Amino acid sequence: MRYLTARKRAEGKGAAHAGTEEHWYMTVSGVGLAFLIPAFLFIFGRAMGSSYEVVVETFSRPIPAIVTGLTLVVGLQHFIKGCKGMIEDYAGGSTRKILIIAVITISYFLMAAGIFALAKLVL
Amino acid sequence: MAQGKPVERPLSPFMLGQYYRLQMTSVSSILTRITGNALIVSAFLVVWWLVAAASGPDYFEPVNAFMTSWFGDLIFALSVLGVWYHYLAGLRHFLWDAGHGLQIETAEKLGWVCVIGSVVLTVITLIIV
């Protein structure tokens, strides 16, 4: 049985053990994405469907490369926390841990692959 | 606590299902989660396309052909709809966090703003790009 009362578990930094840290991160990254997403949609939408030369030329310029890199990194960090919240709502125990680890791994892999591609296009 | 038996406290049932009637606030909330998580598919495609562009024209052409096929267009059109819905729903959360728009009528109206607004923004985006 649990020796802690429900009230005791909620005290201090609460059951999440991190207080409102994640909520605050979602607010900050959300504000960032509110500016990044329209710019990214414009840049990416214009480039998609263009010829290979135009695509390479687009992403070798600083603004499209920086906006795309930021959108990927901030967007995927935002995704990690949002998806983690969903997993914590619907799964428990080892399933929860495995799913969270998988989500974080896939997200960092996508960030690394995206940054690698942009670096190669810029240089 | 003499028996040391924990009290079974009732839990609130899930917002969708037999316990609650379907309503704008719950549906618009779960849609935020669905669109946000579904966007991982778009992230995969965007990164794949960028890696293809960085790998050279030989690898880029088939990947680009897939992305610009009717199937690719469909996925990206849905992604744009998802991203705008999630965008507006996120702005709605900022409003709520600041303590505004929490009255039931206003919250329901804001749900419609997200649904209709995302369709309008998607059409505008697809026209511009």
UniProtKB/TrEMBL annotation, chain A:
Its main location: membrane. InterPro entries: SQR/QFR_C/D, Succ_DH_anchor, SuccDH_FuR_B_TM-su. It is found in: Membrane. It is a multi-pass membrane protein. The chain crosses the membrane at residues 24-47, 59-77, 98-119. Pathway: Carbohydrate metabolism; tricarboxylic acid cycle. Its cofactor is heme. GO terms for molecular function: heme binding; metal ion binding. One of its GO terms (biological process) is tricarboxylic acid cycle. It comes from the Bacteria. Pfam families: Sdh_cyt. GO terms for cellular component: membrane. Keywords: Electron transport, Heme, Iron, Membrane, Metal-binding, Transmembrane, Transmembrane helix, Transport, Tricarboxylic acid cycle. CDD domains: SQR_TypeC_SdhD_like (cd03495). Membrane-anchoring subunit of succinate dehydrogenase (SDH). Part of an enzyme complex containing four subunits: a flavoprotein, an iron-sulfur protein, plus two membrane-anchoring proteins, SdhC and SdhD. This is Succinate dehydrogenase hydrophobic membrane anchor subunit. It comes from Psychromarinibacter sediminicola.
TrEMBL record, chain B:
Gene3D superfamilies: Fumarate reductase/succinate dehydrogenase, transmembrane subunit. PROSITE patterns: SDH_CYT_2 (PS01001). The keyword Transmembrane applies. InterPro entries: SQR/QFR_C/D (IPR034804), Succ_DH_cyt_bsu_CS (IPR018495), Succ_DH_cytb556 (IPR014314), SuccDH_FuR_B_TM-su (IPR000701). The chain crosses the membrane at residues 30-50, 70-89, 110-128. It is found in: Membrane. One of its GO terms (cellular component) is membrane. GO terms for molecular function: electron transfer activity; metal ion binding. The heme is bound between the two transmembrane subunits. GO terms for biological process: tricarboxylic acid cycle. Its cofactor is heme. Its main location: membrane. Keywords: Heme, Iron, Membrane, Metal-binding, Transmembrane, Transmembrane helix. It is a multi-pass membrane protein. Pfam families: Sdh_cyt. Heme binds at residue 86. Belongs to the cytochrome b560 family. NCBIfam families: succ_dehyd_cytB. Membrane-anchoring subunit of succinate dehydrogenase (SDH). Part of an enzyme complex containing four subunits: a flavoprotein, an iron-sulfur protein, plus two membrane-anchoring proteins, SdhC and SdhD. The complex can form homotrimers. This is Succinate dehydrogenase cytochrome b556 subunit. The gene is sdhC.
